[in-house]
Amino acid sequence: MEVEIRHLRVIVAIAESGSLNRASKVLGLSQPGLTSQLQRIEHSLGGQLFFRAEGGSSPTPFGHNVLTEARAVLRGLQGIRSRAESQARHRTAPPTRVGGNAGFVHLALSRWLVGRAWVPGVRLTEETDPRASIEMVTNGALDLAVVYEWPGFSHRLDDSVRAQVVVRDEPVLVMLSPTHPLAAEHTLRLDTLAEYPWVDEPPQMSQWPVYLSQTSHRFGVSMDQQHEVLFAPTAHDLVATRAALAPALITGRDVAGSITLRPLTDNPLRQRLRVVYRPDTLVGAHIEEITAEVITLYHDHGARNAHFRAWWAAEGRHTTPTF
Question: Going edge to edge, which strands form the sheet with 246-248?
């Protein structure tokens, strides 16, 4: 007789129950039937596995050795089953839905998520307005959104949604051509920018134009927005040809011969970066891991420009959470 998995379960059940009588009840067998089965197992293995006595059964030295191996095999079998079930769930689970519009961050995070064992797939949705992305998280259309928000325009969250602030207070830079008259300056005043054409997103696309207008008015200026564009390459081309200035993320970088970045004097334009998520999803179960990766992506990308490095050393590193 070949020893099978079911026979190993019999051996373990007898050892854990302490008697053939109790083991037969656990296994759903009659005691005589279990006794006969044990005898066949012992005959096949070539040795007695248990001492029998009125008080119960206990493993022989040979039985202890067999019992150790039997438990190892059953644990291994359980591990195989668990992995198979996990893979089956993975194949049928819906993709993790990521949204927002945070420069490179939401795209870089999506790429990172694809490599996680617990992520069945990723679907990316971009929305210019952070309110729209947060609303999509609230109604279940997204699992996670990475969004920028501006002072005075923070979106109130529903009780079913949580948020993790990644960067509490980030300055906005200005993008201009290296041959622009202002490129000779190390920092730019907001009132000076108003003397040149500006390119930005159309009004109503998000709360950024309203925030920019309100902040500019506090400084007694009004930006000369001559160009309204939706796509970054269009804005970059207008900047590179000296047709306009544009706002820029501090994680951006210079492009040789076409774009250079400058900070504003006293950093009057600020924003914060948040990860908004549903706690009842896979994202919620892994939010610390996700947020830590967002911070790593953010720092590693931004550290390529000197303005970011200076700000990070002075302020930025003190405003990000640690895990």
Answer: 246-248, 173-176, 260-262
Decide if domain 93-169+271-323 falls under CATH 3.10.20.340.
Answer: no
pLDDT of residue 312: 94
Say if residues 96 and 123 touch (Cβ distance below 8 Å). Answer: yes
* Helix pair 306-314, 287-302: axis angle to 10 deg: 130
Distance CA 175, CA 228 (A): 15
Residue spans per domain, the chain = 5-91, 93-169+271-323, 173-268
Mean pLDDT of 196-225: 93
9 phi and psi angles, rounded to 5 deg: -65, -35
Q: How far is CA 84 from the centre of its chain?
A: 24
**Confidence (pLDDT) at 115:** 87
Q: What are phi and psi of 174, to 5 degrees?
A: -120, 140
Domain 5-91 has CATH 3.30.420.10: no
CATH of segment(s) 173-268: 3.40.190.10
User: 293 with 299: CB under 8 angstroms?
Assistant: no
Q: How far apart, in whole angstroms, are the C-alpha atoms of residue 84 and residue 116?
A: 17
Residue among 15, 149, 141 nearest 69 (CA): 15
The rounded distance, in Å, linking the Cα atoms of 17 and 22 is 6
Structure pTM?
0.70
Has residue 323 got a pLDDT over 70? no
